[in-house]
UniProtKB/TrEMBL annotation:
This is TetM/TetW/TetO/TetS family tetracycline resistance ribosomal protection protein. Keywords: GTP-binding, Nucleotide-binding, Protein biosynthesis. GO terms for biological process: ribosome disassembly; translation. InterPro entries: EF-G-like_DII, EFG_III/V, EFG_V-like, G_TR_CS, P-loop_NTPase, Ribosomal_Su5_D2-typ_SF, Ribsml_uS5_D2-typ_fold_subgr, Small_GTP-bd. Residues 9-266 form the Tr-type G domain. SMART domains: EFG_C, EFG_IV. NCBIfam families: small_GTP. GO terms for molecular function: GTP binding; GTPase activity. It comes from Paenibacillus rhizovicinus. Coiled coil: none annotated.
Amino acid sequence: MTIKAEQTIKLRNVGIFAHVDAGKTTTTEQMLYQSGNIRALGSVDAGTAQTDWLDVERERGISVRAAVTRFAWKETPINLVDTPGHVDFLSEVERSLRVMDGAVLIVSAVEGVQAQTEIIWQALRELEIPTIIYVNKMDRIGADAPRVLADLHRLLSPGAVPIAAPIGAEADFMGSVDLMDASAMAGHPWAEPYRQRLLEAAAEQDEALLEAYLEGHPLDERQAALALVAGAHRSSLFPVLFGASNRGIGVKELMDAVLAYLPDPAGSVTAPVAGVIFKMERDPVMGKIAYVRLYQGTIRNRDTLLNHTRGMQDKVTQIRRVHGQKSEDIGVLAAGDIAAVYGLSRARIGDVLGTPEGVPGEKRLAVPLLTVQVQWGSEADYPAVVAAFQELADEDPLLDLQWLQDERELHLKVMGPIQMEVLTSILQSRFKLAVSFGAPSVIYKETPAASGEGFVAYLAPKPCWAILRFVIEPGERGSGLVYKSLVRGERLLESYQNEVARRVPEALQQGLRNWEVTDLSVTLVEGEHHVWHTHPLDFVIATPMGIMNGLAGVGTKLLEPMLRFRMSVPEEYGGKLMNELVVMRGEFEAPVLRQERMELEGLLPVATTLDFPARLGAMTKGRGTLTTFFAGYRECPPDVDVSRQRRGVNPLDQAKYILAVRNALSG
């Protein structure tokens, strides 16, 4: 097949990101309204926002699911993904990041840069997604543009450069002046320092401009404007705008900036299909809805699609364009675009469709640190509760649903208490089921304490034959699992080696204390099959036994999740809080005093902080602030030893394990 060269497509795929309460959904609503997409403005507070359509979103006034909508501005279509702002729904943000060509990051002019802002910013930079920063709420009491700009430079990037200067602040905020518009600047001489900084930034993007700037020559404004766009596309410069979305001020300028500074997608409609599913929903009539970003090729109604991740084919029944809560059948999805695809009944979030070439990888942001058990009132509800949570786990794989059928238990991984409240609400409104959750417990992990070998010779009961020897070694913290095989194909067939490779991660889901084992390398150094006696499933049984044999020999250390924290309290409470942090096994740097407040930064174990936010409020009479973000796992102190109940039979009890697995496989 001849592949047509990539070309840019007149379209924008933009994610809108922010800390909770920065005004993200209000800004989205204004974009839809001012572009003519909707006739009346919705309200977050009134529960009528277009992109907050779940009952729980309308009731609580927060976004919990990423919402896809589409509008046109100056004849350019824009796919806009409004993402949740609360840290408990970071997984929705994570999945949306993967499919964006550009981003709008909203920062409140009052609160400035928050913890969630920094997490999202780091991910945007690692993925090199061009980003516009929109400073919202300039009309609120306490709005301070110079302070927020200093925050942006200190905490995000010195490349954050205003392309407009705010006119007034708080009740006097009137909008902004375009720094590249000489005629507009004429009436606002106070904005000249902003303009000089912008021209400096433009000069830094282009050698010829820099030379002219250093020699004191006036810069060619058209050339400077092109340099700013090129810098934004390269993610070396980040345009900053100011507005008050609740009053509609600054939103048109933001949409203009989206067209000017964020790139078109690239792709070829005639190339082989390459796309990814980044969001799943369920329609009561049509079944699963897969939101697809297509990077290459074209998909049409009734096409048969390869799901590369699952190695299966699915037939497309319908392709629809989503506009907030409405949608229309468009019949075709072309390279560069986003649409809802129906008919992919076996697909899951993250699945690659067609070829993986050109599909970007994932950036992991959300790491659930707590596990909870689901509880239900009536025993008659048990099958319906299981089915409901299986459906929700399809839509959010990070829930990592564990259904223990023998114990009749359901366990989930969660990010925090707000997510648990939202899940309770969704079960009630969508499935008419009343559920609650047990007390959350921390998710620990294990890692090998030393290097050693694991060996298994699975030779009975006949017919079977599988011999494996693994070398198990500790890895660097955060390295996960590194697996390789040194066994030749004539000793162990490639198909059997592939089975072992598939089963090693499964075997490491429960270690000696029944937590996931991580940060290790596993090397298959010996393997043997028998021409007559080996059954293809023998290595399904043998692999966990060999791995657990090795872990029992080397022992494991317990790892606990850590949070990096930033805390600000009135100075008079500082000593008391530092003592509290020491009791919680916290580590912190020397405190910094700023305007009669003490600021502390450091590390805290998750296990000791579950009730700390509430206690901090009580200890400081509501005047303390705490921001935290996940900082990885590290070794527990020797006096901390936590295990959990094993799911299923332990492979160390080989006779019982073989019997259990053989019965399951034959069943």
